[in-house]
C-alpha cells in the first residue's frame, strides 16, 4: 500500500500512457541534439592539430584562420589571477566600495568626494 492509497486501474492506465508520451517526447527532443553533436564532431575533430593550439589567429576570415594560442593563454592567465586574488583575500578591483543605507535594504555606492 502506498501513501496515496490504492490506485485505481484507470489511474494506472493513465500513468502508463503518460510515461509513454514522456518517453516519446524525450526521444524526439534528443534526435536533433544528437545530430548536431555528430555533425560538430565529424567536421571539427579533423581540424584539431598541434598547430591549432600553438599558433595565434591570423585574422583571415577565408582560408587559414590560424589557431587559438592567445585565447588559451588569456584564459589561463585570467583564471590564475582570479585564483591568486581570491586566495589572498584581495577584493576585485572592479567592485565599488559599498555601504548599507538606513532607508534602503539594498546597498548603494559610497558618494565620491
Description:
- With 113 residues, the protein is mainly alpha-helical.
- Among the domains are: 9-48; 49-57 and 66-90.
- The protein contains 3 helices and 2 strands; from the N terminus they run αααββ.
- A two-stranded antiparallel ribbon has the order 1-2.
- The longest helix is centred in the first third of the chain and has 36 residues, at 9-44.
- The radius of gyration is 28 Å and the shape is flat.
- The model has no long low-confidence stretch (mean pLDDT 80).
- Based on secondary structure, the structural category is mainly alpha
Lateral strand order in the biggest sheet: 1-2
Distance between the termini: 72 Å
Oligomeric state of the chains present here: single chain
Uncertain residue segments: none
Question: What is the CA-atom radius of gyration, in angstroms?
Answer: 28 Å
Keywords:
single chain, two-stranded antiparallel ribbon, 2 strands, 5% strand, 113 residues, mainly alpha
How is the topology of this model organized?
Blueprint: H1 9-44, H2 50-54, H3 69-88, E1 98-100, E2 107-109
Antiparallel strand pairs: 1-2
Tell me briefly what this model is.
With 113 residues, the protein is mostly helical.
Amino acid at each position: 500500500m502506498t501513501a496515496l492509497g490504492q490506485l485505481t486501474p484507470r489511474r494506472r492506465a493513465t500513468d502508463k500512457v503518460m510515461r509513454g508520451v514522456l518517453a516519446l517526447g524525450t526521444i524526439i527532443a534528443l534526435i536533433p541534439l544528437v545530430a548536431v553533436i555528430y555533425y560538430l564532431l565529424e567536421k571539427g575533430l579533423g581540424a584539431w592539430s598541434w598547430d591549432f593550439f600553438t599558433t595565434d589567429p591570423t585574422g583571415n576570415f577565408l582560408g587559414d584562420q590560424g589557431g587559438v594560442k592567445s585565447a588559451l593563454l588569456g584564459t589561463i592567465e585570467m583564471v590564475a589571477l582570479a585564483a591568486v586574488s581570491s586566495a589572498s583575500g584581495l577584493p576585485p578591483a572592479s567592485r565599488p566600495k559599498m555601504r548599507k543605507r538606513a532607508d534602503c535594504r539594498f546597498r548603494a555606492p559610497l558618494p565620491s568626494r
